Amino acid sequence: MKKYFVLFFAIAALSSCGSNTSIVNSWRDPDVTITQEHFKKVLVVALVKDEASRRITENRIAASNPVFKTSYQYLNATSQLTQEQKLKILQDENFDGVVSMRLVSKEKEVNYVPGTYTGMYYGGFDGMYTGMYGYGFGNWYGMYSPAFYDPGYYQETTSYMVETNVFSLKQNKLIWTGTTESQYVTDLGQTVDAIMQAVVKEMRKDGSLPPN
User: Fold this and answer.
1) Fewer CB within 10 Å of terminal CB in the chain, N or C?
2) Strand 97-113 vs strand 42-47: parallel, antiparallel, or unpaired?
3) 83 secondary structure, DSSP code
4) 161 touches 179 (CB < 8 A)
5) Mean pLDDT lowest among 66-70, 149-153, 166-170, 189-193
6) Are the C-beta atoms of residues 41 and 7 closer than 8 Å to each other?
7) 156: exposed, middle or buried (C-beta count within 10 Å: 0-12, 13-18, 19+)?
8) What is the Cα–Cα distance from 103 to 53, expressed in whole angstroms?
9) From CA 85, how far away is CA 94, in angstroms rounded?
């Protein structure tokens, strides 16, 4: 059990605190927690069409702890097999758990960022005209000439909704699922780390994992 706790804590430590990823919703089996399963060998499955993205995602998670194994190492040559046959392969390889990630949706949103005015602070009529600057145009111009206006612009933001599932192979059922939303994605590996951090935080919150 302790080994499994270390596994998830190691994943969470990979992520930065300033993540743009958050939990949208989650569910756990009320009759079982992840800690009760005592997972010793967990298959990592990234359900994406692009093979490179699949391997980056699976490798990123598997690198956090030797308990995790990538699915492409075990299931790449099994495309012609039935689900029952694939399940038997995992059982024969002594897998007792599966963690899967699936891209649910990708949405683009365009927002307008208003312009900004930069210059000297205008502190009121008295402060401006009765102080050291005097009344002349030259002083006024010298005071405000550095000011400028930065025009507004439109910014496109892409949001990724990712579903993470945890299955028990011993009981052959889903025991935890959660959906995360990630914005301003620039690096796939860092986003995977952030998703796992959000997942671990939610698992601690709902009792699937012990609190810190």
Assistant:
1) C
2) parallel
3) H
4) yes
5) 149-153
6) no
7) exposed
8) 11
9) 14
